[in-house]
Design brief:
The strands form 4 sheets. The protein has a 6-stranded mixed beta sheet with strand order 13-10-14-17-15-16, sandwiched between helices. It is of the alpha/beta class. It has helices at residues 2-9, 130-139, 185-202, 220-229, 264-273, 276-279, 294-319, 355-361, 364-396, and strands at residues 23-32, 35-42, 49-53, 58-64, 67-68, 81-88, 93-100, 104-114, 118-127, 163-169, 179-180, 183-184, 206-210, 234-239, 252-257, 324-332, 344-348. A hairpin with a 2-residue loop joins strand 11 (179-180) and strand 12 (183-184). It folds into 2 domains: 17-139, Immunoglobulin-like (Sandwich), CATH 2.60.40.3500; 163-393, Zn-dependent exopeptidases (Aminopeptidase), CATH 3.40.630.40. It is 32% helix and 28% strand. The chain binds zinc ion (ZN). Residues 170-171, 177, 185, 239, 241, 273 line the site of zinc ion.
Length: 397
């Protein structure tokens, strides 16, 4: 299944395994006068492209797929550069995104071959006026790779009897999600997603599709689209945020989509999750316009009902085995849950900001318990559906 997703992301060739990517090490950032220079050592000389982007102001550096092995102690800011991050962007591209606290333009973006066939990447930025920066930003409009989105082909075979569940590990690649003490949300939720897939597949009753099964970026629109084109019976997005400064706030929460948020915290969280595309430097991303029409309205209403049933199941099963947030079932306007015809929920496994939660999120034992609870909720959900279909058939006879 993952193979087919990859084939869709890059139709021409299977992407190389990550172990074959050029390796980036030894990042340095320094300011001298009006210039800030970011450099990295690469295991090969590769092509580099760079451009600036306004609001938020930043520099996007694009390289072929790169395996970043940057020392954790590397300095991350200097002068007008308030920070930078890096990671895979698509199957064949990586990005470094440099956040600017003041306008700057690109004086140099190059990879020079150095001794031993290595490459030295240098990005040199020069302080600029707002006008010059905006002029530079206006010159380039790089379309994100996901816009326009080619509808991914479904891998669902005709006559497939199993239920289809799409598991959506949040964030990935250039977008790390919440990061606390070098633990990234993207890694925590991927590990959880893979464990859930394994357990569900073992039952033989489900066809599982992952929106990503490695450390890569997938746009929100593509995630929704994968759920729809796979004709998923359930879409489960997995997250583990650090929303609050309050370290004592902890526990898991199940979210569904609604236009009006149940509370301010839910609204803040949805707003943060909806920014995922911007974090990766996608220039344009707009939520799909709602499809109008009576049939769509019916589908949406039905989807909402099923979503509600499943979400309550989840809260019940999860609550029996792991610690839940004090308001465990909430809703807000999450873009990733916007498919009108796929029951979709988002599980916040816990708060990375809580030291206790962070420890649990990383423990295989805790993960096993939570995965088993989610699987049980799925079993229950489809069992009830079978029972109600059975009853309907009986009453017709
Ligand atoms: Zn998240």
């Amino acid at each position: 299944m993952a193979g087919s997703l990859r084939a869709w992301a890059q139709p021409k060739a299977e992407p190389r395994p990550q172990s074959e990517y050029p390796v980036a090490t030894d990042a340095r950032i320094e300011q001298s006068g009006e210039t800030v220079r970011l450099s990295m050592m690469l295991s090969a000389n590769v092509a580099v492209d760079a451009w600036v982007q306004a609001s938020p102001d930043r520099v996007i550096v694009e390289l072929p797929s790169t395996n970043f092995q940057i020392q954790p102690s590397a300095k991350r800011s200097a002068g007008f550069v308030s920070g930078y991050r890096y990671g895979l962007f698509t199957a064949d591209k990586a990005r470094i995104i440099i956040d600017l606290s003041q306008p700057a333009t690109i004086a140099k973006a190059e990879v020079k071959t150095v001794r031993g066939g290595f490459g030295e990447l240098t990005i040199e930025l020069k302080k600029a006026s707002r006008g010059d920066f905006l002029a530079e930003a206006g010159k380039v409009l790089k379309p994100g790779p996901a816009m326009p989105v080619p509808a991914p082909a479904s891998t669902k075979a005709a006559g497939e009897a199993r239920r289809t569940i799409v598991i959506d590990p949040g964030h990935g690649g250039i977008d790390p999600g919440a990061t606390v003490a070098s633990i990234a949300e993207k890694a925590v939720v991927l590990a959880f997603g893979k464990a859930l897939k394994e357990q569900l597949e073992a039952s033989g009753r489900y066809r599982i599709v992952m929106t990503r099964d490695d450390d890569r970026f997938v746009s929100l629109g593509d995630r929704v689209q994968i759920g729809r084109s796979e004709q998923a019976d359930l879409f489960i997005s997995i997250h583990a945020d650090s929303l609050t400064q309050a370290q004592e706030v902890r526990g898991a929460t199940v979210y569904t989509r609604s236009e009006r948020a149940t509370d301010a915290e839910a609204a803040r969280l949805a707003a943060k999750e909806n920014e995922a595309d911007a974090v990766a430097g996608l220039e344009t991303s707009e939520e799909l316009q709602d499809v109008a029409g009576i049939l769509m309205d019916l589908a949406r209403r039905e989807t909402r009902t099923f979503t509600g049933v499943f979400a309550r199941n989840l809260v019940e099963k999860l609550g029996g085995s792991i610690k839940m947030h004090k308001i465990p079932l909430r809703s807000a306007r999450f873009w990733v849950l916007s498919a009108p015809d796929v029951p979709s929920v988002l599980i916040e496994l816990g708060y990375m900001s809580s030291p206790k939660d962070a420890e649990l999120l990383n423990s295989p034992e805790w993960r096993g318990k939570a995965v088993t609870a989610v699987s049980a909720a799925i079993e229950d959900y489809f069992a009830r559906e079978r029972a109600s279909v059975g009853k309907a058939a009986e009453s017709r006879n």
